[in-house]
Amino acid sequence: MKLKAKIFLLALVPFLAAIAGIALGVRHQATALAIAQHDTTQSAYMASKEIELRHYVDLATSAIKPLYDEAGVNARDDAILRNRALAMLEKMDFGQDGYFFVYDMHGRSLMHPREPDLVGRDLWTLRDPAGSLTIQQLIAAAAEGGGYVRYVWHRPSTGKLAPKLGYVVPLPRWGWMLGTGIYLDDVDTTLARIDQRASSDIEHTMLWIGAIALAGLCVIAVCALVLNVSEYRSADAKLKRLAQQVVESQENERARLSRELHDGISQMLVSVKLLLESALARFELSEPRVQPAEAALSTGIGRLGDALREVRRISHALRPSMLDDLGLAAALEQLTRELSTQSHLSIGFTQIVHDHAAQLPDTVKTALFRIAQEALTNIFRHAQATQAAVSLEVSARRVTLSISDDGRGFDVERVQADPSAGVGLRNMRERLEALNGELQFVSRPGHTLVTATAPLFAQEALHIEMQADPS
Q1: How many helices (H) and strands (E) does the chain have?
Q2: Domain containing residue 291
């Protein structure tokens, strides 16, 4: 084989391997992000639908409450009061396909405004096309104090079977099950549209990678035609630099993705899981509809919304809005307050602002907030501490963030040396290194201190340099 052919292959094979690796990595990551976006969007939609259904049923029960309460006092007119309640519920609706239905606890239909032919019929053994006992599932949920059921029912506006989410509550004094539902066609359509758009974006990205690969191949082919012996060494050096740049870019991208996913989504999902577990424990120890448990579940739903916004932030590389709206000190105070209410930790926050203190750049605020979030999460998950403290000190030339706790401590050298155990600490250190800052750890049983320091004058010099040289 001629020397030119060997050099051509030497350039071609690594290039194709790198492009193939990049293409596979990009496709895998984009697919994973699309799946995560689908799941979080679906969870958010279903959570909003459940809240909406509960609101509708609360309105209906409030509307008939005077009749229901009067029936308990005046049993002689109970039948008249029931009929008035059914008539009132029959007139209530929320759109063409939004209505209320009433069954007794034995499966007999008492009121159905969209399908009046069902009234009076025993539907206890009614099955959907999949064989599920629809009415029995609804009654079982009502018998447990109320709940949500997914089933299939005819949509009045189309006359076709459609998936539906129902919410039912019992009326024990009358032996009724009152409920309503929302058809989920629009949710499925929206999710399908999101999936289609994500698939289209992935295909466009792959086409761009293919075009870049083709352009690269053309460049290599043209260069191979004009190479001579004196250019071979230069080409070899360029290939080595190109390979190094590809490796560095891959490592930087992996580090960025790992840092953002670990510091953001992972911590929020852990918080949500703990909240839901707390709510479940409260429900198990309390009667139904206990307000503290409901408040905990409501907070968990809010956390899920935060997780969705965090995924979008990672996708679009946006800054945390809380820092832009409230500033670092207010954001840290809110973070410590939220974690204190969610756990047994007592977390204090102090701020020290010296005379002529400098304004914190956005990059510094973001880095310090993420460091505090990571450190507090580690305390919550691993330290077994009862008290923690966060301190922010701002002067004219530097800003210092300190996080301490009274937990069991850890072996700093061992954790930093272990690649699988020190991801969070490594992410914190990388954030500060980008700002010319310094991160210090002091840990022993009963006391752990994390100190993050960032120079402010260096950030101003960097900002001026970037304005003077935009390239």
Answers
A1: 12, 10
A2: 233-318
User: What global pTM score does this model have?
Assistant: 0.40
Separation CA 290–CA 385 (nearest Å)? 29
Q: Do 207 and 314 sit in the same domain of this protein?
A: no
Sequence-distant (6+) residues with CB within 8 A of 150 are: 163, 164, 165, 166, 184
371 with 380: CB under 8 angstroms? no
Q: In 10 A of CB 75, how many CB atoms?
A: 10
Q: Quick one: which H or E segment has residue 350?
A: strand 346-353
**What is the spatial distance between Cα 138 and Cα 146, in angstroms, rounded to a whole number?**
9
Answer with the one of 318, 353, 388 that is the final residue of a domain.
318
Range list of H helices, 349-418: 362-378, 412-417
pLDDT per residue over 386-422, tens digit each?
A: 899 999 999 888 899 999 999 888 888 887 777 666 6
> What is the sign of the dihedral through the CA atoms of 85, 90, 94 and 100?
positive
Instruction: Write out the DSSP string of 147-197.
Output: EEEEEEEE-TTT-SEEEEEEEEEEETTTTEEEEEEEE-HHHHHHHHHHHHH
Q: What is the pLDDT of residue 316?
A: 37
> Is residue 420 a contact partner of residue 469, using CB atoms and an 8 Å limit?
no
